[in-house]
């Protein structure tokens, strides 16, 4: 193929044609002709034809109400199909070297040899490798599970059609199946009719594991093992567990009143049920496969006189798993059933299956042992008997409120009014005490009772069912000690990892001081056994100070915490609260990890996977395998070929960039009297509340303004009108300020030699490429009072100047010069996103001026929101 994008374009064209057939069958020639007219005008307008741009606006503005929804659905559906084609293209057999990078791990091992990294150091890094992905409980995932299932099936059809030796019958069959799937998606509700519950979110997470990660984890480890043998001459141990999966779904109660102790308990039971169900599937297959009769003495002792010893052991396990499912079914329904011969601990699976594995090897059947049986053993090490480790997350003031009620009831005063020093003294005294603290005959408020009930649920679980207890908006050492005390009072028999989450600019800057205070407390040092987890907040820090200042504060916080914990002899794990969008710390995984401070990945990686990015990075087995490959190579590279320590002059300039960008960002967001009314009118922020995105309310405080908005709807709203303000505001202005003050050469050096800075610029380039000043202006003209237009004009002028500043530092003529594949993918989607943008502005105008609520208009508006989100990809 001459054009390296031909395979992708061919699939996009085919899917579009089949969607057209579906639209024609459902709505007739007239609507299809209208959709096609809009598509062609958009394509011409994207190429710079101003007349067709004006015609496109006229056509969309003149659509009758009954055509708004099907037209919106057509373009929204097409973007879903384009995403699937693009996602498939990244793993297809025809993915050419110009598009797909060479295998990241192979590439790394070759570079390790070139850099004289010793085999011993490489082996140690592999031994210490730990990747923990945390699926989060506030998905910006618009697509319903039923839609996602259809998209997965479409992917399978594309894979079939790529085979060169298909007969015409087989090809026709695959194409018919594709058209059926597209028709099924068209005739199903695109948008959920009801907001998902936390249980729905948890089930969505289990579906990702069942449909993708259950296959991807052992496949990645198989490939990793082969690479280790090829490059280091060493195998990955059977019991190695470099991959762990955790979740916030059903455990994250920060600002979500729907996540209760009861919900958390049910999610933990459902998680165990799903694990037993998936293992039962594996065991059924192994019963079919392991019909061998020769075995070693260990297996013979376990199987007795059975002629087929492996099957005898497996059938016993099958019975245990069936009992477990019956028991958990009853528990979930609130019924009582005896806890007899059920799965409660990982060794019940591991010990007999590992014995079978060793026996097969000893009896000359290694090729059989290293098949499905090895995959199952790998899964046991990754998923355990609980499938995922559930994190608990709660806001710091909720713990302080609980302690305040206790101290007031005991006549000790109001804990919340005490100084930090007095709080710490009280907490350490009570943590060291053997007597209970809780007063008798005390009736806590409902809010406090909920906190105490959550701690009791934690105390009743086996340790391996749980991840960390994350404290959002953590500010002080007492915030951490308070959770330890509440868990102690609940009778928690194990040490829970209590993880402070530092979110705002000020809190990030104080992170080292807080952890230092904790490590200076003798009780605390003894209790944590030299292990500390700290979560770095990306979303709220960027919302507070802008992306440039937040990025530098995150870097410095990580750096100072690494140094502090090294000096103190404490193992540190940094937990990254990244989102998919740039405004929430998003960046390509490999680049993002290599841009962190040296030594910050020594304890492994713990990172949130959020919203629609879960589907894009982990939703298909092959894609998930690739993602794990990228994570593993980045962590190993960061630890074996660490990035350079920044020069002092780079640090000094970053301080300036941070200060200038923060001031510029806050000057607009906090300082402009017109900003809030402009934001509310030019974006669909107010309308987002109608979209059943996730179980959490859009605001922490329902009566608050922009400052109370969660980071997700804040960024989501700006991505809809294509200004993407939070993802760039302040950054380019700071760069321009430094250029004007004679620092261009230094900025160029930082761009070339410092991954932290070059990654920041790369992220800005991607954001700039996704913006559309003309679309933003169109929203203003349709929706914003004329007296507020100057603010929009200023912001778009600022955007244009910022793009020039970044290109000057990078010595580039146009955006994403180094990433033509990414630029082409954005360009391809824009043809379908821009009509949706214009349609959304039209719908917002009609719904805001309409006296009566229109269900039809509201639904069409929701579809445009979903479609634009699909087109923009990393929206929240």
Automatic annotation (TrEMBL):
Q: Keywords of this protein's UniProt record, alphabetized?
A: Carbon dioxide fixation, Lyase, Magnesium
Q: What EC number is given for this enzyme?
A: 4.1.1.31
User: Cross-referenced InterPro entries, in alphabetical order?
Assistant: PEP_COase, PEP_COase_bac/pln-type, PEP_COase_Lys_AS, PEPCASE_His_AS, Pyrv/PenolPyrv_kinase-like_dom
Q: Which GO terms describe its molecular function?
A: phosphoenolpyruvate carboxylase activity
Cofactor section: Mg(2+)
Q: What class of enzyme is it?
A: lyase
Its UniProt entry gives the catalysed reaction(s) as: oxaloacetate + phosphate = phosphoenolpyruvate + hydrogencarbonate
Q: Does the keyword Lyase apply?
A: yes
Gene3D superfamilies in UniProt: Phosphoenolpyruvate/pyruvate domain
Per the record, the domain of life is Bacteria
Return any one Pfam family short name: PEPcase
Q: Which residues are catalytic?
A: 138, 543
Q: Which residues form a coiled coil?
A: none
Entries under NCBIfam families matching the protein: PRK00009.1
- State the similarity comment: Belongs to the PEPCase type 1 family.
Its quaternary organisation is: Homotetramer.
Describe its function. Forms oxaloacetate, a four-carbon dicarboxylic acid source for the tricarboxylic acid cycle.
Protein name per its UniProtKB record? Phosphoenolpyruvate carboxylase
Native organism: Enterovibrio gelatinilyticus
């Amino acid at each position: 193929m001459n054009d390296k994008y031909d395979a992708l374009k061919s699939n996009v064209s085919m899917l579009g044609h089949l969607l057209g057939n579906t639209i024609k069958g459902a709505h007739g020639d007239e609507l299809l002709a209208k959709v096609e007219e809009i598509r062609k005008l958009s394509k011409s307008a994207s190429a710079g034809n101003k007349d067709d741009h004006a015609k496109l606006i006229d056509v969309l503005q003149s659509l009758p109400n009954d055509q708004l929804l099907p037209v919106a659905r057509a373009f929204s559906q097409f973007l879903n199909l384009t995403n699937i084609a693009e996602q498939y293209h990244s793993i297809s057999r025809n993915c050419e070297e110009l598009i797909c990078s060479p295998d990241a791990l192979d590439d790394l091992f070759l570079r390790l040899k070139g850099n004289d990294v010793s085999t011993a150091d490489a082996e140690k890094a592999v031994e210490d490798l730990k990747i923990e992905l945390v699926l989060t409980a506030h998905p910006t995932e618009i697509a319903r599970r039923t839609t996602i299932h259809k998209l997965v099936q479409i992917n399978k059809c594309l894979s079939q059609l790529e085979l060169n030796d298909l007969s015409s019958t087989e090809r026709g069959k695959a194409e018919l199946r594709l058209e059926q799937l597209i028709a099924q998606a068209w005739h199903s509700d695109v948008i959920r009719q009801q907001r998902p519950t936390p249980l729905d979110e948890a089930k969505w997470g289990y579906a990702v594991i069942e449909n993708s990660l259950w296959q991807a984890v052992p496949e990645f480890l198989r490939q990793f093992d082969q690479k280790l043998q090829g490059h280091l001459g060493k195998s990955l141990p059977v019991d190695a567990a470099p991959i762990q999966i955790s979740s916030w779904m059903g455990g994250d109660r920060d600002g979500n009143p729907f996540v209760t102790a009861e919900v958390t308990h049910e999610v933990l039971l459902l998680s165990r049920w799903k694990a037993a169900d998936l293992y039962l599937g594996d065991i059924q297959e192994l019963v079919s496969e392991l019909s061998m009769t020769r075995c070693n003495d260990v297996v013979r002792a376990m199987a007795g006189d059975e002629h087929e010893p492996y099957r005898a052991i497996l059938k016993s396990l099958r019975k245990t798993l069936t009992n477990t499912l019956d028991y958990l079914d009853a528990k979930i329904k609130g019924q009582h059933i005896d806890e007899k011969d059920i799965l409660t601990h990982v060794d019940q699976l591991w010990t007999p299956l590992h014995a079978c594995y060793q026996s097969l090897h000893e009896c000359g059947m290694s090729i059989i042992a290293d098949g499905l049986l090895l995959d199952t053993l790998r899964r046991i090490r990754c998923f355990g008997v609980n499938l995922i480790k559930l994190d608990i997350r709660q806001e710091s003031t909720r713990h302080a409120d609980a302690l305040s009620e206790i101290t007031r009831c005991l006549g000790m005063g109001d804990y919340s009014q005490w100084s930090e020093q007095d709080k710490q003294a009280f907490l350490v005294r009570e943590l060291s005490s053997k007597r209970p603290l809780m007063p008798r005959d005390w009736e806590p408020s409902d809010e406090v009772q909920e906190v105490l009930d959550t701690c009791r649920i934690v105390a009743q679980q086996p340790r391996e069912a749980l991840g960390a207890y994350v404290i959002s908006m953590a500010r002080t050492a007492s915030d951490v000690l308070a959770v330890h005390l509440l868990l102690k009072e609940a009778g928690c028999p194990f040490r829970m990892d209590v993880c402070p989450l530092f979110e705002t600019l000020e809190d990030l800057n104080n992170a080292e001081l807080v952890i230092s205070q904790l490590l200076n407390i003798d009780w605390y040092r003894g209790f944590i056994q030299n292990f500390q987890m700290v979560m770095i907040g990306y979303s709220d820090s960027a919302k507070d100070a802008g992306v440039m200042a937040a990025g530098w504060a995150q870097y410095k916080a990580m750096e100072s915490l690494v140094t502090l914990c090294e000096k103190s002899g404490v193992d540190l794990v940094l937990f990254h609260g990244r989102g998919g969008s740039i405004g929430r710390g998003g960046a390509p995984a490999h680049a993002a990890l290599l841009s962190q401070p040296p030594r910050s990945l020594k304890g492994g990686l713990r990172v949130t996977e959020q919203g629609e990015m879960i589907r894009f990075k982990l939703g298909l087995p092959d894609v998930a395998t690739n993602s794990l490959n990228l994570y593993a190579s980045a962590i190993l590279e960061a630890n074996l070929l660490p990035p350079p320590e920044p020069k002092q002059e780079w640090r000094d300039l970053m301080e300036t960039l941070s200060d200038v960008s923060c001031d510029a960002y806050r000057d607009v967001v906090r300082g402009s009297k017109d900003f809030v009314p402009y934001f509310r009118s030019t974006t669909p922020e107010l309308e987002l509340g109608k979209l059943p995105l996730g179980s959490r309310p859009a605001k922490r405080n329902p009566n608050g303004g922009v400052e109370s908005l969660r980071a997700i709807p804040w960024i989501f709203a700006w991505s809809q009108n294509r200004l993407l303000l939070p993802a760039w505001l302040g950054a380019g202005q700071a760069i321009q300020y430094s250029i004007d003050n004679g620092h261009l050469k230094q900025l160029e050096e930082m761009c070339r030699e410092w991954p932290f800075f070059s990654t920041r610029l790369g992220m800005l380039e991607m954001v700039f490429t996704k913006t559309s000043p003309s679309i933003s202006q169109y929203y203003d003209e349709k929706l914003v009072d004329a007296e507020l237009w100057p603010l929009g004009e200023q912001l778009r002028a600022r955007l244009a100047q910022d793009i020039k500043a970044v290109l000057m530092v990078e010595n580039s003529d146009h955006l994403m010069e180094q990433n033509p594949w990414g630029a082409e993918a954005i360009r391809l989607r824009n043809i379908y996103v821009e009509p949706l943008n214009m349609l959304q502005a039209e719908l917002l105008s009609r719904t805001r001026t309409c006296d009566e609520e229109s269900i039809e208009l509201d639904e069409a508006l929701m579809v445009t929101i979903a479609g634009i989100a699909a087109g923009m990809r990393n929206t929240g």
